[in-house]
Amino acid sequence: MTRQEIVERVAREQRVETILRNIAKQPVTGDLEDLCQMVYIILLEFDEDKIIDLWERDEINFFIARILMNQYQSVKSPFFATYRKRQRKQVPIEDYMNLADE
Q1: By the 8 A CB rule, do 15 and 8 touch?
Q2: Maximum Cα–Cα distance for the chain, whole Å?
Q3: What is the DSSP code string of the chain?
Q4: Which of the residues 35, 50, 66, 83 has an alpha carbon 20 to 30 A from that of 74?
Q5: How far apart (Å, rounded) are the C-alpha atoms in residues 19 and 71?
Q6: pTM of the entire structure?
Q7: What is the reported pLDDT for 39?
Q8: pLDDT bracket for residue 13 (50, 70, 90)
Q9: How far apart are CA 31 and CA 8, in angstroms?
């Protein structure tokens, strides 16, 4: 199998989404869908021989889990910088209205 074929199979079987649901402990919607797409891009850009080797040794799921954990949990990851950092700065409208009333 080639890297392209492996990634296509991983996508058809929704392995990234399944692993992410376990890590995030929530449904894969919104920003988490974007994280899945980031992982597919990482897989497609990764060294082909290494991806094939991971596939043949049945270690691709562990590799995907590591990528997801790094992206989802690290404050230095591209996913954090693009999505989660912005979410942390958001204030619920109720809190904002309470501040305005004071």
Answers
A1: no
A2: 64
A3: --HHHHHHHHHHTTHHHHHHHHHHTS---THHHHHHHHHHHHHHHS-HHHHHHHHHTT-HHHHHHHHHHHHHH-TTSHHIIIIIHHHHH---HHHHHHHHH-
A4: 50
A5: 13
A6: 0.72
A7: 93
A8: very high
A9: 22
